[in-house]
């Protein structure tokens, strides 16, 4: 794929997915192989607030059908090597460069590149700058090959897990294996644990973005990759009329709005989605009928076949007016700023590079 924009989680340029600084949920790759153990994992990131690999629930999976052939991995590095102030830490593998490359901002000290699977290559290099060492890992994926990308999660939007845990549990499909996993998106770190950006798996939305967190990396249909804006559109029809549905299994219900939560949400306290707003209300819907109305959002898992509606401010007033037995209809769909909905999408945040130029976000938050 060839996209001239960069997200904190990925840098898609000419088929490359580069993990940059700030990210939290993951991405995985799958390939068919009979000669290598399953679960070859590339863990490429750090979570914000010093939470290392505290990936929430989103990721991509890539699958290839031919046997994977990989060069020997680089030798493990010790922390003492990484922190040496002068000598660069070794990053080379057979075929790697031993030549330092300098530019006005720093020195690239070593580079290594090796295949992970047919159509998937990992390139790593170390870079010395005035005040720090940088370790860069870029995963190049030929989306026109037999490689498959997918959204990886625990199966519950608000459940947390490390990249390696999610990749180990991922079902790559018959004759395939997971070959790499990459963090993606930010998550609601001190509240629900849900991703803040959108998520799409097999063309279906897994959760809507929190307000303002619409940017994502999308792949498909037909293997095309792009950086895009993803939105959520929904309606709630009740006896009193039709109202906007503002969220679906999302970390936050928008101000004055209503969100829908299903068994896919998990066990996170739904009261955390309302930002301590008042008033709040919750309506439980089963088989298209209201079965219960509460004056505060509940906790615990949502049963299969049940939808829980959570409202705040004006949205709470709509739900509080419902009565058991009232008919309720929920409709929703994802929408992009351009083009079809991707087969797979994971959220990101600010763009880091545009047309080869690094963007300055100094002073801005995550």
Overall 3D shape = elongated
How much helix is in the residues?
Answer: under 10%
Largest sheet: 7 strands, antiparallel
String of helices and strands: EEEHEEEEEHEEEEEEEEEEEHEEEE
The low-confidence parts are 1-59, 64-94
Number of strands: 23
Question: Which radius of gyration do the C-alpha atoms yield?
Answer: 22 Å
Mean pLDDT: 77
Percent of residues in β-strands: 25-35%
Helical segment tally? 3
Our measurement of the CA-to-CA distance between the termini, rounded to an integer number of angstroms, reads: 26 Å
* Global structural class: mainly beta
Count up the domains.
Answer: 2
Please outline what is shown here.
By secondary structure, the protein is mainly beta. It is built from three helices and 23 strands. The protein folds into two domains: 16-69 and 91-231 and 347-358, no CATH class; 240-326, no CATH class.
């Amino acid at each position: 794929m060839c996209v001239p924009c960069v997200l904190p989680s990925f840098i898609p340029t000419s088929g490359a997915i580069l993990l940059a600084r700030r990210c939290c949920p993951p991405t995985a790759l799958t390939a068919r192989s009979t000669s290598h153990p399953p679960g070859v994992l590339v863990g490429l990131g750090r979570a914000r607030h010093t939470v290392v690999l505290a990936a929430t629930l989103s990721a991509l999976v890539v699958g290839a059908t031919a046997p994977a052939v990989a060069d020997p991995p680089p030798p493990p590095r010790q922390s003492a090597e990484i922190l040496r102030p002068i000598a660069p830490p070794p990053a080379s593998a057979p075929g790697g460069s031993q030549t330092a490359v300098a530019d006005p901002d720093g020195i690239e000290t070593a580079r290594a590149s090796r295949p992970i699977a047919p159509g998937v290559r990992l390139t790593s290099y170390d870079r010395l700058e005035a005040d720090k060492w940088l370790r860069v890992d870029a995963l190049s994926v030929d989306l026109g090959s037999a490689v498959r990308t997918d959204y990886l999660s625990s199966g519950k939007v608000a459940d947390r897990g490390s990249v390696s845990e999610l990749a180990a549990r991922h079902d790559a499909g018959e004759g395939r294996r997971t070959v790499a996993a990459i963090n993606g998106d930010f998550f609601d770190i001190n509240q629900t644990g849900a991703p803040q950006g959108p998520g799409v798996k097999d063309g279906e939305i897994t959760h809507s973005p929190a307000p303002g967190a619409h940017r994502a990396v999308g792949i498909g249909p037909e293997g095309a990759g792009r950086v895009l804006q993803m939105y959520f559109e929904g309606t709630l029809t009740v006896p009193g009329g039709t109202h906007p549905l503002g969220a679906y299994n999302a970390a936050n219900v928008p101000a004055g709005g209503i969100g829908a939560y299903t068994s896919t949400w998990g066990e996170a306290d739904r009261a955390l989605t309302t930002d301590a707003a008042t008033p709040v209300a919750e309506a439980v819907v089963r088989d298209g009928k209201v079965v219960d109305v509460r004056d505060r959002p509940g906790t615990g898992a949502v049963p299969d076949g049940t939808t829980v509606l959570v409202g705040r401010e004006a949205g709470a007033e709509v739900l509080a007016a419902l009565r058991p037995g009232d008919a309720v209809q929920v409709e929703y769909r994802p929408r992009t700023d351009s083009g079809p909905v991707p087969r797979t999408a994971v959220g990101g945040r600010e763009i880091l590079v545009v047309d080869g130029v690094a963007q300055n976000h100094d002073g801005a938050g995550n």
